[in-house]
Amino acid sequence: MKVTYYGQSCVEFDFDGTSVLLDPFISYNELAKDIKIEDINPDFIFLSHCHQDHVADLSVIQQNSGATVAAIVETAAWVRKQGIPGDKVIEYNFGGTLDLPFGRVKMVYALHTSSTPEGDYAGVPVGYVFFVGGKKIYFAGDTGLTVEMKLLEDLQLDWAFLPIGGYYTMDVDDAIKAAHFVNCTNIVGIHYNTFPPIAIDTDEAVAKFKSSGLNLHLLGIGSELVL
């Protein structure tokens, strides 16, 4: 079981041979210019919300791969409008858990906003908890710090993917609080350094997490981490 980081909040999980991609934003990211999206062929794509920097490459990757796309109801409606067949779209909502061939995926709360690239209503943002092969992985998506995260503390999470760039989401200090809220020590940072407003001092971030008893992993674009 491993994860590949493609920049911003785009990650691809390899769940023992099943590929699950989240928030595809690659070809529009200057930092990810060496990544070829035609080489990415997921079985499933999950969207945390519908902002451009999370869905820009959805259509191309889905068309190339035939992946099934999962999202909250209103974002799923936008997905279907992109010409993606209805039988390749899964819509669900808070409290729902999908039982899929690779494991279970529960939709959880995120504190942010959401609209389509065209500026239309797209429901609300979400996070996901993946239950796969005995491991529990939290993908927070775009979110500010929120007390609802405490509802996850008894899950005994193995990994948490948290935004750390600030400005649009949690910053490093709030992400440290979030890690304690969800009771997880192994953190992968997302949503940082892509644009000037979310640039961070990565060495300082790692040091801050370490001083709080947490392990912050900052992956190079295209690099992998065994989970």
Automatic annotation (TrEMBL):
Pfam families for the chain: Lactamase_B_3
Classification via Gene3D superfamilies: Ribonuclease Z/Hydroxyacylglutathione hydrolase-like
TM ranges: none
SUPFAM superfamilies: Metallo-hydrolase/oxidoreductase (SSF56281)
Domain Metallo-beta-lactamase: 7-191
Entries under InterPro entries matching the protein: Metallo-B-lactamas, RibonucZ/Hydroxyglut_hydro, UPF0173_UPF0282_UlaG_hydrolase
Protein name: L-ascorbate metabolism protein UlaG (Beta-lactamase superfamily)
Taxonomic source organism: Sphingobacterium allocomposti
